[in-house]
C-alpha cells in the first residue's frame, strides 16, 4: 500500500511538474507568436507607406512633366493652381500641394492662398536645389510652417528648359492619415502602432498621443540597433509613453527615413494563457483532493485486498500453467478479470505496455492501476460487457510510458458451468500507427483539397485519377468531367501540336517537365498556366502515377499587359509612346522591312495651352491622333513621341515620292480647324522624313536624323517638310557645338559689348549709343551675332545673356558719366524671349537700381514681332516700363507685321527705320517712298525717327531733307569697344 501511495504521489508530482513546464513553454509560444504577427504587421505597414509614396510620386512626376516649364516661365497663378487642385483631388491622402520658387518662397498653392513662408532651409529643398539628379525626396517628420501641424513632405525638383533649378513641387501628409489606417489593424485592446523618425521623434500613433507628437523618445534601444546594422527586431519593456508592459517589434522602412513599431500588451498576449493556467490550477486542486480520498480508501480496504489476493492466488494456482501459456501466446496485451474487476492474469505484453511487473498488476483493479478518468472509461467498458452479455469493442486513450496512446479493447464474458459470468477476458491492440496513418492521410487530403495551386493526379497512362478544388476553380472542370480522360484535350486547341508532342517526349525521357502554356476553360475562354509535371515511381523505379501542379497565370499576365500598356502606350492619345514606337521601329529594322519614318511637330500647341488651358491642349492632341490614324492605312503605325510631336511609320518602301504625298496629306489634315470651346483653332505642323535603312539602320540614328530634318523644316516656315540629308547632321553638329560653347561664353567672360553712336542728323552731335553684343570665341574668333543670337533665343540662353547685357550697358553708361562725359542715352535691344518669358520690368528696375543709372538715360529697343504677339499684355508691360522712366523704340520698323494701329496705341518714343530700306533708297524708288512715308507718319504722331545702316553722304542728305531726326551707321562709326567711346564723343563735339 505504501509503495502504491508513494507511486501515485510521484506520478501526481510529475504531472504537476509537466503542467508547470507546459505552461512555461506555452507562455513563450504565445509571446513568439505575437512577435511573428508583429513582424508581419511591420512589413504590411512598410508596404502601405511604399504604396502611398508611389501614388504621391506618380502625381508629383506627372505634375512636373506637365507644368515645370510653365512654372519656370512664371505663368499666372490660376493656370498652375488649377493643375495643383486637379492633382490634389487625385491623391486624397495629401493635405496640401504647393510650389516653391528658387528662393524657397511659396509661388503656387492648391488652396489658392499663398502663405508668407520660406522653406529654403529645409533639407529636402536644399537637396533638390543642389542635386540635379535627385528624384523623389521624402522628409523626416517636421512642423509645417503654414499649418503648424507635424507632417511628412514628398518633393520633386523643377527645372527650366535650360535644365536649371526652377523650384520644387511638394505635397504633405499629416499624421492622422496614418493613424486612421493604424486604427483599423488588430493589435489588441492595449496594443499600439507608431511611426517614428530614425532619431525616434514620434510622428503618428494609434491610439493617438497628440501631446507627445514630435517629441523624441530618449531611452529607446532602436537607434543603437539601427547603428549596429540591424534593420528590424524586437524587445520587451514598459512603454515609455504610457508605462504599459509590452512586446515591441520594430522595422526601419527601406527607402524612407522612418521606423515603424508595433507593441502588443503582455496582458492581451497572455490572456488566453492565464485562463488556461487557472484551469490547470483548479484541476490540480481537484486531483490533490482525489488523491487524498484514494489514500484513505486504500487504507480502509487494505486488509480486504490482502484476503482477496490470497483467495485469487489459490484459485489461480490451479490453472496457472494452462492460462499462462494461453495468455503469453497472444502478442498483444491480454488479461483475465473476476466479476469485481480484479486482475486474475495478464500476459507479458500487458506488463510491458503498462510498464509494471506482473505481481504489481495481479489482484488490482483498473482504479488502482490507471488515472481516475481513464479508470472510469475502463470500468464503463467492463460493465458494458455484462450488460450486453457478449463481446464489446471500445476505443480507449491511455497515458502509458509517458505518452498518450490509443488502444482498441475487445472484451468477452467468461461463464461458469452454471451459465453465470465468472469474469472477463480481454485483449487490446495499439492503434498508434493506424491513427498516425489516418492523420497523415487527413492532412494530405486537406492540403490537396485546399492548395492554392491546382493539382491533378494521373495514372501511369496519364489519365486523370483525381483533382483538387483549385482545378475546378480555375478551369470550370469537375472531377466527373475529367476522370479517366487525358488532360491534353484542354490544351490541344491552344498549343502547337508539335510543341505538345515535344513535351510528351521530355516526360517519357526525363520524367519531369516545367513551363508555360495556354489552356482552355470549360466555357472556352483562354487560360494561361504554368505547369510542373513530374512522375511518381514505386520502389522498383517504375512510374505508377503523375503529379501535375498548375498555376493560374491570368492575374500575372493581366498585370504584365497593364504594365506593357503603361510602359509603351501614351495614356492621353492611346497611341504608342516614344518607347513603344521605338520598339516597333526596331522590329521593322530587324525584319529588314522597307518603310519611311516621319516625325511631325505641332506648332501652336503651346499657344492653345496658354489661351484655353492644358485641358484644351489635351483635346487638340487627341483630335490630331484620331485624324492621323484615320488617314493612315493598315500596316502603317503612328505614335506620340512626347509633347506636341508624333511619329509615323509608312509601309511604302523606300519611295520618296510616295512619302512626299503622304506627308503633304498629313500636314493638310492637321491644318484643318479644330473646334475648342466654341472657337475654331487652326494649327500648323512641320515634318522631318527619313528613309529606313538608307538614312540609318538604328532606331536612335533614324529618330535623330528625322529630328534634324524636322528642325530644317521648321526653319522653312509652317506646314513644310524636309527629307533628311547627310549634310544636315554636319550643320546640326556644328550648331550643337556652338550652342554648347555659348552656354559657357558668359561665365568665361567671352561676351563683350560694342557701342555704335547715334547721331543727331542736323547738329552732327553724338546723342547716344546702341549696344551691340559680340562673342569673342577662343577658337572661332569673333562670331557673328547672326549665328549665335538665334541659338541663344531658341535655347533660352538669351535670358541670362540679356540680363547681363542690360546690367553691363547701364553700368558702363554710369561709368562714363562718373568719368565726366556728358550724359548720353544707351539703347539696349530686348529679345522676344526676354519680353514674354521673364519679368522684364523687374529686370530693368533691378539693373537701374544696381548700377545707379537714371532711367532717362536708358532706351529699350523692341522689335515688331514682340508687339503683335499678345498685344494687350505688351501694352501693360510697356506702360510699366514707361512708368520707370525709360524710353522705348520700335526696331527694324517695316520688316515685320507693320501696323499703324500699334503706333497709336503703344507708348513708343522712337521709330527705327530698318537698314534694308536705307541701303537702296538712292536706287530703289519703293524703298525711298517707304522711308518718306515712315518719317511722315512718325512726324504726324509726334514720334522721333532714327535710321540705321547709313553709310554714304547721299543717304544722309536724303534723310536730312525729309525730316529724319537721327541716324546711325558706318558713315559715323561702326560699333566700338567701351574704352574708345570717350575719344569718339570728343572728336564729334570738336
If you had to describe this structure to a student in words, what would you say it looks like?
The radius of gyration is 48 Å and the shape is elongated. The termini are far apart. The model has no long low-confidence stretch (mean pLDDT 82). Strand 29 and strand 30 form a beta hairpin. The strands form seven sheets. The protein has an eight-stranded mixed β-barrel with strand order 29-30-32-33-34-35-36-37, surrounded by four helices. Strands 1, 2, 3, 4, 5 and 6 form a six-stranded antiparallel beta sheet that branches. Helix 18 (605-612) crosses helix 19 (614-631). The longest helix has 71 residues, at 2-72. With 990 residues, the protein is an alpha+beta fold.
Low-confidence stretches: none
What share of residues are in beta strands?
15-25%
Please tally the β strands and state the result: 37
Q: Give the % helix.
A: 40-55%
Report on the biggest sheet: 8 strands, mixed, barrel
Quickly count the helices.
33
The general outline is elongated
Describe the secondary structure blueprint for this structure.
Elements: H1 2-72, H2 77-90, E1 96-100, E2 106-109, H3 123-130, E3 137-138, E4 142-143, E5 150-159, E6 165-174, H4 175-183, E7 192-197, E8 202-206, H5 222-227, E9 232-238, E10 245-252, E11 258-265, H6 266-269, H7 271-328, E12 334-338, E13 343-346, H8 348-354, H9 366-369, H10 372-388, E14 392-400, E15 403-415, E16 421-430, H11 432-450, E17 454-459, E18 464-467, H12 469-475, H13 479-482, H14 489-492, H15 497-510, E19 512-520, E20 526-537, E21 543-552, H16 554-568, H17 578-590, E22 596-602, H18 605-612, H19 614-631, E23 637-642, E24 645-650, H20 656-670, E25 674-676, E26 679-681, E27 685-691, H21 699-715, E28 720-723, H22 726-745, E29 751-760, E30 766-777, E31 781-783, H23 785-795, H24 798-818, E32 825-830, H25 832-837, H26 840-851, E33 858-863, H27 864-868, H28 871-884, E34 887-893, H29 900-905, E35 910-913, H30 915-919, H31 925-940, E36 944-948, H32 953-961, E37 966-968, H33 981-989
Parallel strand pairs: 27-28, 30-32, 32-33, 33-34, 34-35, 35-36, 36-37
Antiparallel strand pairs: 1-2, 1-6, 3-5, 4-5, 5-6, 7-8, 7-11, 9-10, 10-11, 12-13, 12-16, 14-15, 15-16, 17-18, 17-21, 19-20, 20-21, 22-24, 22-27, 23-24, 25-26, 29-30, 29-37, 30-31
